[in-house]
């Protein structure tokens, strides 16, 4: 049985047994919060449990490294929609120790692309179009600095309301312990 068949078989049973009932909620986050975090598999269940979140408590947005690549990309759009349309009032940027984006080697990743069938022509076309794949694939050197940068991009976004608190935290992916890097309730010292 392939992965799709496995999922579909399970899903049929899930629906028939009405297992979905315990997950019913609304589209509005009960705790009025947005969490932007890394897609690391270790955080799938650990993150919500360590934050005492249940289904429906928060909007959770994930990408590789919890990094905002572009101020008008899909991550910022999702955060802004959660605030303006879904009543979120706070944003939590949560990175983690041992993140793969802190050690990614873009050159190696490009080589892996080639081995999987991406042609030199495709790579050349992207380069000609002004896309620097090495910069695009690069992660970060320091998770603390990366979290601070993502918090600053959110907080200083021209469409972000000034009364939304933006926090930055780092999680231990083994224990779930959190460390506050940016406390959004504190006024900035200039």
TrEMBL record:
Its cofactor is Zn(2+). The keyword Cell inner membrane does not apply. It catalyses: hydrogencarbonate + H(+) = CO2 + H2O. Keywords: Metal-binding, Zinc. GO terms for molecular function: carbonate dehydratase activity; zinc ion binding. Its EC number is 4.2.1.1. It is an enzyme of class 4 (lyase). Zn(2+) binds at residues 38, 40, 96, 99. Binds 1 zinc ion per subunit. Belongs to the beta-class carbonic anhydrase family. This is carbonic anhydrase. It comes from Crassaminicella thermophila.
